[in-house]
Amino acid sequence: MRAIYRTGSRNFTVLSKQTKCFCLDNTDVKLDYTQRVKLMELTVIQKIAIWAIPILFAITLHEVAHGWVASFFGDQTARLTGRLTINPVKHIDVMGTLVVPILMLVFGGFIFGWAKPVPVDARNMRHPRYNMVIVAMAGPIANLLMAVFWALIAKIGLNLNAWFGVPLVYMGQAGMMINIVLGVLNCLPIPPLDGGRALCNLLPGQLGWSLHRLEPYGFLIIVLLMLSGILSSVIEPVISFVMRWLMVLFNLT
């Protein structure tokens, strides 16, 4: 499943009412949730160190979730091919998981990333159409759960000393943002995104098939929506809402 999350010359936004400050090497590192966290002021090595683990697990567990749920409904294809593992090595697509994200992180702009799709065969399921809806939405749900996990990491970091706390807060914020954006984006009703595949199975016969036929052009449609600004206008309010909810839940406000 392709994923798009934004970084580069722009900073991601985390909203809150309070400011936390640490002092590291006589330099104030301000963790102000009312402003944009300036991750892009870090060195290339620091940026890669902060984003690497959240990116790997956001993409990997998203795919594994599809396989786990498919296995629950009777399709053991992912299990038989050794893909029901959280070991990122089993899921890495060298180009999509490593080369492209690193290059885009270094040079700025939009980061595109993807892992090897977990194989799923709906014919092995008890109720293929409706089971596939749940299988498709398992990916975004997994991302929401991971965003909760990274919010907990950020909360822990805020209560530690600067040497341990600052990296954890940066990584926690990166993990929250990656997973929220990935989850929200994949809910869009455009195949091959998860929301599109779920909708294909929910719509009656010909309508579902007609939407499914858009899948070869789905990635192009997403890029055009992104470049036109329509994509951000649609998903940013949802992303902000989820981020605010997580911050209230973990008392980050």
Summarize the structure in words.
This protein has 253 residues and is mostly helical. It has helices spanning 44-72, 77-80, 94-107, 128-158, 162-186, 194-202, 205-212, 215-228, 230-249, and strands at residues 2-6, 19-24, 27-32, 110-114. The strands form two sheets. Strands 1-4 form a two-stranded antiparallel ribbon. A two-stranded antiparallel ribbon has the order 2-3. Helix 1 runs antiparallel to helix 3 (94-107) and helix 4 runs antiparallel to helix 5 (162-186). Mean pLDDT is 80; it is low at 1-40.
What would a concise description of this structure say?
With 253 residues, the protein is mainly alpha-helical. It is 61% helix and 9% strand. α1 runs antiparallel to α4 (128-158), α4 packs antiparallel against α6 and α5 packs across α9 (230-249).
Q: Alpha-carbon distance between the termini?
A: 33 Å
Number of helices: 9
Portion in strands: 5-15%
The low-pLDDT segments are 1-40
Shape: globular
How would you classify the quaternary structure? single chain
Question: Main β-sheet: number of strands, strand sense, barrel status?
Answer: 2 strands, antiparallel
Proportion of helical residues:
55-70%
Backbone structural class: mainly alpha
> How many E-type strands?
4
Write out the strand line-up for the largest beta sheet, numbering strands in chain order.
1-4
- Mean of residue pLDDT? 80
Run of helices and strands: EEEHHHEHHHHHH
Any idea what the radius of gyration is?
19 Å
